[in-house]
Amino acid sequence: MIQIHCPYCGETLPELEFAYAGEAHIERPLSPSEQSDEQWAEFLFLRENVKGPHFERWRHLHGCGRFFNAVRNTITDRFYITYKAGEPRPDLATLLEEDK
Amino acid sequence: MTRFNALNLVKNALSGHKNWTEQWPESQPKAEYDVVIVGAGGHGLGAAYYLAKEHGITNVAVIDKGWLGGGNTGRNTTIIRSNYLYDESARMFDHAVDLWQGLSQELNYNVMYSNRGVLMLAHTVHDVQSFKRHVHANRLNGVDNRWLTSEECKEFCPPVNIAKDARYPVLGGALQERAGTARHDAVAWGYARGAAERGVDIIQNCAVTAIRRHPDGSVAGVETEKGFIKAKKVAVSASGHNSMVMSTADVRLPLESMPLQALVSEPVKPIFPCVVMSNAVHAYCSQSDKGELVIGSGTDQYVSYSQRGGLPLIEHTVAAISEVFPIFNRMRMLRKWGGITDNTPDRSPIVGKTPVQNLYVNAGWGTGGFKATPGAAHTLAWTVAKDEPHPINAPFTLDRFRTGRLIDEAAAAAVAH
To answer: What is B118-177+257-343's CATH number, 3.40.47.10, 3.30.1020.10, 3.40.1130.10, 3.30.9.10?
Structure first.
């Protein structure tokens, strides 16, 4: 069972308490009516689908209920870090270096 | 290549089965092909077979980073059905079911297609309403499907628990009698043998690392572990790794790769006569000819390339199986595994041309690709040979995610299918 650290609750808990919420750091366009069909397709449907370190959102569904971000390796399913929503994207090179 | 028939079987039995010829040769890549297919699963091998047989294109290579049929073709739960809600899907999957009927004869290879029937159980009033709608929609599309009461379900599949006080009461079911199972390995092997017989090279253990393009944008060939291979046309059919392979040609696909798990029990005597699916509680079950119960689970909720999957899903599936079939609740499970499925947002596949000239894709089959194998392969071969969509795969474009003309089986089925 994957253990996930909730940055709000400060606890590491089984994955059953959490819901995956897709790729992280995808921003809704500020002026939706000016977006082209291609831009909408990209916003709605195109994802990186990374094999390796992946930036993603999770929600502590059966806990505090809040959304947060995480970096997880999609080959091993191991989490490098979780951080609060709104915080900047961590530097991947530093994360991987610290992980060694 | 020796044809399989009674005479040859007797002859080889008398000589101790030592003189059978190889099924397909160990090929090394040539410098150039008319068509290169990336991915030697059932879909890719089938496309090569139909290219050679129906379109006379035999200078074809099927390249795989592992062994043929070693990906999702050999990892699925072998369920075949075509009771899809939308017209586009019904046509595609029923085309496949039509081809399944005569596939063993066509390939001279026993794929053990068994139309034992697929029964989908309804546990709630909502299930009953939506399944009846499916039955009617299917029948209008010429796809067989009929409604059974809970007693009729019990009669068709005795291990089902239809007790009124069951945790998941069975209120009825939708039965597709032409649906069933096949031996998944044999499908890959049969297509490989048929394709190789017609001159197709099957190159295993040779990963395609990139798709190379001409300065004008069209496809030039593929970079592989064994060097560059020139190709007039390239078709990508690499299931969970489709988005990675296609991104090397600067084509982004709306795909997310997730593990789909399955498990099998210890073998027991024949007890389970059909395939039973229960979408609401997420349990799929059939019995293989070896006697194992073959049980399908769901996809993990997150993107992952680990061919294992998480344990909570297995626990949930086994709990559901024990509730619906109490007779199985003390059976031991032998092994579980995962395959990486590529899922589109509308859970319908993307088959056909891409923005890159002479590059074709067969992707997004998600959790339901095995059943479509002959249909997907047959129509993909048409598209590659003629450089135009086949009437059946025409709606399954990449462009639908821009225009909004989705084929939303995700909403229709309510679960991964």
So the answer is: 3.30.9.10
